[in-house]
Design a protein that fits this description.
Layout lengths: L3 H37 L12 H28 L13 H35 L11 H14 L6 E7 L2 H8 L1 H19 L3 E5 L4 E6 L4 H15 L3 E3 L2 E3 L3 E7 L7 H17 L4 E3 L2 H15 L1 H6 L3 E10 L4 E12 L5 E2 L5 H4 L5 H16 L6 E5 L1 H4 L2 H14 L6 E6 H5 L2 H13 L3 E7 L6 H4 L6 E4 L11 H16 L3 E4 L5 H10 L3 E2 L10 H13 L4 H11 L1
Parallel strand pairs: 6-7, 9-11, 11-12, 12-13, 13-14, 14-15, 15-16
Antiparallel strand pairs: 1-3, 1-6, 2-3, 4-5, 8-9, 8-16, 9-10
Helix pairs in contact: 1-2, 2-3, 5-6, 6-7, 8-9, 12-14, 20-21
Amino acid sequence: MTRPASIHKQWLELSATAQHALRLTVLAVLVAVGWLIVYFTGGTAYAYPYLMLIPVILAAAWYQLAGALVSACAVSLLLAFMPLDVATSELQTPANWLVRLGLYLVLGGVAGVMFQRLHSAKRHSLHASYIDSRSGLPNYLALEEDLSKGLEGNSGQALGLMVVRITDIVDLLETLGADASDELVSAIGQRLGRVVNGRARIYRFNGPELMVLLNSADHEVLAKVAQDVLSAGEENLVIQQMPMRAQLILGYTLSTPGTQNARQLIHEARVAMFEASNQQRSCSAYVPAYRKRTMQAIWLISRVRHGLENNQFELHFQPKISLADNSVCGCEGLIRWRQEDGQLIYPGHFMPKVEKTTLITPVTRFVTEQALTMAAHVPGGVSINVSARNLLDNDFIEMLRALISQEAVPASRLEVEITESALMADIKDGSRSIRAIRDLGVGVSIDDFGTGFSSFQYLRHLPLSGLKLDRVFVMDLESDVHARKLLGCMIDMGHALGLVVTAEGVETRGQHDILVQLGCDQAQGFLYSPALPIGDYERWCDDFMHSDRSALSLAVESGRTL
């Protein structure tokens, strides 16, 4: 089946030939009509011969100087054989038609030069529109055109497209300005040009992104080029007399017979690049599953506000167990999204995207309201998770203050959990927010401790109340003596700072017993109970408190039966 773009290309080629033929036909008709008008109005002695300048000027517009001079000579020679006066058959003198020839050549030449300069300026302007003026590299218009041509004329050869993003260009922009960032892009572009060594063309797609187009490639070639590009990025650059190392992240894709157009290939390469960023990798190849997952995420995000308005979100609660006496000492509120068919969507499928949008504000408000309502009825209080965006939002503290007052619940029964990565995204403002939260009387714990920066230095300067050890430090406790020693050191460090230490992801009785021996304060995990809806959690707590059996035995039995 012939592609629409191929048909369009054939039509353009046909129309160029047809246009040339049409123009010559129009000129010939104008010359013939002009000659007849001059003849039937009496001959060259009258003013009508100047009508013959029309095809000369038109030829200058279409074919510039050469066309104007040729047409001027042609019409002058035709008029040379016409009588000066048709009625008397008086012939022209040589001087007469030579003067006319010179006049036509001068006027046609002037018009030809003017149109030639106009066309030259137009071509220059068109060329400039394909160049990024700040870096000197071809721009996205040139990329789209080259991709379109490549997709049509590849003769079975696949096109490889790679997007290279300079992730720290914003820092340079803020420090040294736009000229420095453009200089960096230009320098990276030149370096990429040396890496591909004529095998590809480099484009500036937008501010921090460059595109690399390989006209004939396969996955092995693209992977090799990707590694070469990343290696080149390791080398230092000097930008405005300041040495720096650009941090690069890239994604790449390969055209297939089903690739529809240039924009599809560009989209695939950028999806791969964003996937690499999300996975905290330096490079990623595009696979169709990425697009499907992205479309699902976009669809979910578009329905978040609808879900909030229609009470589709709910908070489930996972108990925290005091290891000193096997009692319930609190719980963690975890958001769930119940679809119309009753199916639950877990936060990992939508919260990472929500956290990057303004929707995080109403979602966090909902979670906080539900947690404060629950905190008045359950032992130990409730903890909730907040994102980096919440932490750096000045309105978040005011929202906490207003909701605590509205629900009339002691602030001490609420705890905020912040991941290390969220805190370290902006340690200065993050620390200020933590102090403001603690001033309200709300507890603050570092969640997933040990998986982020794990800097003990910042802990001693923050008014924290707790520390939650990530499940990765718990899972191997029974089989790895080094894991036990490491976890023991982390527990001792937390206690030395006056923090309540909680272990996450406890799933076996052996892990529980080791945590007790190591002096850990609290634990949560499937050994005790999964996160439960409000009603189930209240019944679980009621059974837990009124049973004559040991709290741990009941927790284990309940966790297995729920």
